[in-house]
Amino acid sequence: MSCSRFVDFYLFGQTVEHFRYLGTNRTDRNSIQEEIKSRLKSENAFYHSVHNILSSSILSKNIKIKIYRAIILTVFWCGCETWSLILRKERRLRVLESRVLRRIFGPKRGEVTGEWRKLHNEELNDLYSTNSIVRVIKSR
């Protein structure tokens, strides 16, 4: 075993640095950051596949939130118990969550000017009353 590696992975008789096992990325350095990066990419892909549904005026906001929880959040909650998040990854998770919630709740008309504007993060937190994705991951 080399000094730079924590674990040598043997796959089909060969030593490999990383591989995908049961839906998670395993690395020889036990780096969870690559796993989180992969999950962010997956969530982005799922978001883009349902983003037309989330912006539809036909569906209610409750149904859109259920779609968000069932399709997008489950990508992260599988195996997140072993993660230790760094601030950069927490920020990316919050940005992704805010983007999806802004798509679900849509813009808001200003009371004074009457112009449409994006919802602020505090307003999103008030409308989406459950815990944020980062808080759920940390609690697990």
Explain this structure to me?
The structure is a single chain. With 140 residues, this protein is of the alpha+beta class. The protein has 2 domains: 1-30, no CATH class; 31-139, no CATH class. It has 5 helices and 6 strands. The protein has helices at 32-54, 61-77, 87-105, 121-127, 133-139, and strands at 9-11, 14-16, 18-21, 24-27, 108-109, 116-117. The strands form 3 sheets. A two-stranded antiparallel sheet has the order 1-2. Strands 3-4 form a two-stranded antiparallel sheet. β3 (18-21) and β4 (24-27) form a beta hairpin. The longest helix is centred in the N-terminal third of the chain and has 23 residues, at 32-54. The two termini are 33 Å apart.
Mean pLDDT level = 76
Strand content bin: 5-15%
What is the straight-line distance between the termini?
33 Å
Give me the side-by-side strand order of the main sheet: 1-2
- The 3D shape can be described as elongated
How many strand units?
6
Q: Which regions contain 5 or more consecutive residues with pLDDT less than 50?
A: 1-9
Q: What's the number of domains? A: 2
Largest sheet composition:
2 strands, antiparallel
- Rg from Cα: 19 Å
Structural category is: alpha+beta
How many distinct helices?
Answer: 5
- Helix percent reads 40-55%
Order of helices and strands: EEEEHHHEEHH
Q: How do the helices and strands line up, and which of them pair or pack?
A:
Layout: E1 9-11, E2 14-16, E3 18-21, E4 24-27, H1 32-54, H2 61-77, H3 87-105, E5 108-109, E6 116-117, H4 121-127, H5 133-139
Antiparallel strand pairs: 1-2, 3-4, 5-6
Helix pairs in contact: 1-2, 1-3, 2-3
